[in-house]
Amino acid sequence: MPHHSNLKHRPYDGSKPLFRIGLSSFADNAWLDVDENTEFYLDEKKRLIAEIPDKVFLTTENTIESQSEVLELIVEYLQENQSEVREPDADLPPLMQAALMVQEDLVIMGKRAEGWCLVAGSVCFPSSWSLDKKIGEPLHDVHAPVPEFNKGTRNAGMIERILDNLQVGIPAERFDWSVYSDDDLYQGGRTGELNGDEGDHFLRVERQTITKLPNSGDVLFIIRTYIDPFDALKSRDDRREIALGFIGLLEKLTTTQVDYKGLDEGRDVLITRLQELVDAT
User: Fold this and answer.
1) Are 105 and 130 spatial neighbours (Cβ–Cβ below 8 Å)?
2) Which of 96, 150, 246, 273 could link 92 by a cystine bridge, Cβ 3.0 to 4.6 Å?
3) Residue 205: enclosing H or E segment and its boundaries?
4) What is the distance between the alpha carbons of residues 12 and 184, in angstroms, rounded to a whole number?
5) Phi and psi (nearest 5°) for 43?
6) 266-281, pLDDT tens digit by residue?
């Protein structure tokens, strides 16, 4: 499939601990990532919106203002940073217009009585979750399956405070990773997880950013998904260091974390493949 990124981001290399919020700042011109795979991503979005619209685009009430803000910000960014900007389809909801201009998935979070909630989203490339099961929920329920991020945990409280204190014009990013047995961008269920077979393995990375919307006060959560075949590691000069770091992360996973990552059957196979990279270097 034509969406491999040549391992642009490698959060599985052991340089950062797992299951931490781990936010950091980034350059002003790096908010969105446009690359040679743009058309493939946008075609996939259009296909999914046509085939399963109620699973990939949903909104709650009273989000048009923040949707319009997102569209305005994305158009402005693309105009400043790209030579060619697609004309949005004015007949579509503003958030969908914005989503069909970029490779990223877009989620709007709004402050409600129960805390920060997922109030609107265009999510065509989820990693083992479904927008239709999360829309309208507070974030501590959205994150309920994630070890150490469910309601009442320290991380859940920290996320609320981070979003409360997020400043306009100062976005932040974090990364997450998973491993699947195929390279489908849409992984709405949990069927794409790694099994114990020694077949194809694909490294899936999410670059996640949060941005405060200046007028509504809502927060835009952006998810950019990158996918590479495991064998792409073989061509890197630093493959030994990446493999050793990756092995270290996998060995530290608790039983709960292994289950969440979908590696119950596949962790040992993955470690074996990584060790082969180390031994061959």
Assistant:
1) no
2) 96
3) strand 202-212
4) 20
5) -65, -40
6) 899 999 999 999 998 7
